[in-house]
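Entry 14. Structure prediction run on the chain below.
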Amino acid sequence: MSIISGNSIQLFIKEGQTYKTIAHSTDFELSLSIDYQEVKSKDDDDDFVGLKANNVTWELTGGALVVDDSRLFDMMVTQRKIKLCYGVTDDGELPQEGYMGWCIITNLSLEAPAGDSAKYSYTLQGNGELKYGNLVDMDDDIAILYRQRQIAP
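Output returned:
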């Protein structure tokens, strides 16, 4: 079993057939939530309530060191949809498969304290389904989050 290193997360943008790193992440969190509705009929004989799933939502929050690239800010201001892909790889190459879905940048803030590296934090809100699949044949202009696998000590 391998342990995934949080130090290896990077954000890439696809340019033509190549990928350019635009962020070296300092923290990363992908969260999924399901809203449930209580289901109970007046005709039910017991006192127990059932649950019915309504909506599944997902978002990605994170932070990164600022690099000389304003594309995330441009994507937010233009309200551009981004295809997000997240996968794990053993060899440092881009992952072959993983989770993908469309999202919109809903929050982007910049922090540049005196004497420290400039950082920004972001929130990408899912816009539709997040599904597992092949990341190799992507032809969209894509932002990719990527984690490199590390062997457990």
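The two ends are 10 Å apart (CA to CA).
Filed with the rest of this week's runs.
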